[in-house]
Every structure is written in C-alpha cells, then in structure tokens.
UniProtKB/TrEMBL annotation:
Name by which UniProt lists this protein: AB hydrolase-1 domain-containing protein
Family: Belongs to the AB hydrolase superfamily. Epoxide hydrolase family.
Gene3D superfamilies referenced in this protein's UniProt entry, alphabetically: alpha/beta hydrolase
Keyword Hydrolase applies: yes
Organism (species): Linum trigynum
Keywords: Hydrolase
C-alpha cells in the first residue's frame, strides 16, 4: 500500500491516524468496523482514488495508530460521531461520501442522520442503517452465549482474549465473522473456544493481512474496541426521528452472519429500513460474507464507484 499516505491529525485533543490517497475534489470517507482498522479499506481506497476521488480512512480513537482517549472506559458512539465531524471540519471538507462497514455503518448512520448537510451519499456494508439504542442490535433476543452478549459482560472478553496472542485473537474473530452463523458459545465455552487451533485462515485473507491487523491491535489493545461498539450498543444517542436524505446504498452478503441477528433480515428484505433511508438501493451478493470488501474487492469496488459516479457533481 505504498501509494497510500499516512499522517496524524489532532482532533478533539487526540492524534488520529489518517490514511489518504487521491486528489479529487470529491471526498470519500471510509469508516472501519471491528476487528478492523483503516487497512480493511485498502482495496477500495486505491480503486476510488484511481477513479478520480480523494479517499480518506482513519483509525477511530482507541483503535490502531490513533491515540487512546484519556478515559477509555467512558468512550461511546457519540465520541466517534463528533470525531468524524471534527475531522471533516479540520480538513475543510464541507460534504463527503460516507462508506461504513460493521459498526462503522452505525457511526455513519449517526453522521448521515444528524448532519444531513455534510453527506452527499451514504454506503454501508454488512450493517444497514442503525443507531445505538434498544431498537438497534436486538442482542437481548439472541441466546445467552451470543458473542455480543458475552463481550458486553465486563471482564469476560478480556479474560478470554488474554489467554491467547493478539494475532490468534484476530485470526479467530476473522474466522468466526466469516461464517454464515452468528457465533454462539455453550455455557461451558468462551467465544475463542469456538475456533479450533488448527483452523486455517480464510483463503482471501493472507498472513500479511493478519500481521497488519495484529500489529496494530498489539499497540491499541481491545479496551476501547470492547467499549465501542459492544458495551455502548444500547446507549441513547439522542437522535430523534432519524432520516437520511442522501442517496444511499446497502451491500449485504447472502452469507453474512449478521442476517441471522434477531429481526435483521426482515428489516432489510421487507424494506422497513427505507422508513429511515428513503432513497436506498439494496444489493445482495450471493458469495458475499461479512468481509465482502476483502473477499470480493473487485465487486465491491465496482459497486462503490458506480454509486459515486452516479451521484457526483457534474
């Protein structure tokens, strides 16, 4: 990724790591999920830059090469929302195309609903429009051993992850999240126990990729990552009567385990999501999973660039 330039910028008192490529006047801001950092968008950033756009990805506070907040145990989704807007202000970007994956789609949803004038287009992968709160991820309707329920318990994921090298933790989570079933442990298991030690990496995920993620989580740890998203999913973000006015695109893999979250598939396929995002196109990828941007980069690049070109300023 030699073409991508890296820097740090001070945003709301923290140095956030920025990855950037391209010089186009139209800006695409990529928001990562877990267990990811900016690197998850490496294929898409290069592609949209070649298509004439300026691509920016950053590590959220407490992730990757960005600073840890002074009080990590108080981090929440509103911090990530305010950081995103403050970053756009600092870079003098009045309007942006947002691309969010996993919980980055939740941050993007907050930005698109609360700051409609700053968003020219809104794309999400793996998660539809959702806000934090009881009407978002309905993990209370999932089994007790559901991974989100487990990771919301103070200290439980820390103990589970702490038994293993960081590299193994990342490998296990990638393996679990690549499947079509939500990770659920028995009462006598922890989530990390669901992956055999001999389990291979997904074929589209190289040892180099694994090392890139692992080296950065070795630096940052999982303290903020467990807090946001998992332990603040139920928070009230204060956005009332949310509506996304920007043209939007949702890309879901047919094999994405998120489709089997309580109520999720119906929310998407019934079109109920359009009550919040009226101008929404939904695309299902037959071979897609929760990491379609890495498993099927050419297809995701095509969808993103096609969307951007459709709505860019003439």
């Amino acid at each position: 990724m030699e073409e991508i330039k890296h820097s740090h910028v001070q945003v709301r008192g923290l140095n956030l790591h920025l990855a950037e490529i391209g010089t186009g006047s139209e800006v695409v801001l990529f928001l990562h999920g877990f267990p990811e950092i900016w690197y998850t968008w490496r294929h898409q950033m290069v592609a949209v830059a070649k298509a004439g756009y300026r691509a920016i990805g950053f590590d959220f506070r407490g992730y990757g090469l960005s600073d840890q907040p002074a009080e990590p145990d108080k981090a929440n989704f509103l911090d990530f929302l305010h950081d995103t807007i403050a970053l756009l202000d600092l870079l003098a970007i009045p309007k942006v195309y947002l691309v969010g994956k996993d919980f980055g789609a939740i941050v993007g949803s907050m930005v698109a609903a609360a700051h409609q004038d700053r968003v020219g287009g809104f794309i999400t992968l793996g998660i539809p429009f959702l806000l934090p709160g009881p009407d978002g991820i309905r993990n209370h309707l999932m089994p007790n051993g559901f991974y989100i329920n487990r990771w919301q318990e103070p200290g439980r994921a820390e103990a589970d992850f702490g038994r293993l090298q960081v590299k193994t933790v990342i490998k296990n989570i990638y393996t679990l999240f690549s499947g079509s079933e939500p990770p659920v442990a028995r009462d006598d298991q922890e989530i990390m126990d669901l992956v055999p030690l001999s389990a291979p990496l997904p074929p589209w995920f190289s040892n180099e990729d694994l090392q890139a993620y692992a080296s950065l989580y070795e630096k940052s740890g999982f303290r903020v990552a467990l807090r946001v998203p998992y332990r603040t999913l139920g928070m009230d973000c204060g956005i009332r009567d949310p509506k996304v006015t920007a043209p939007s695109l949702l890309v879901m893999g047919e094999k994405d385990y998120v489709l089997k979250f309580a109520g999720m598939e119906d929310y998407i396929r019934s079109g109920a999501v359009r009550q919040f995002v009226p101008d929404l196109e939904i695309v299902f990828l037959e071979d897609g999973n929760h990491f379609s941007q890495e498993k099927l980069p050419e297809k995701i690049n095509e969808l993103i660039i096609g969307f951007l070109d459709k709505y860019k300023k003439n």
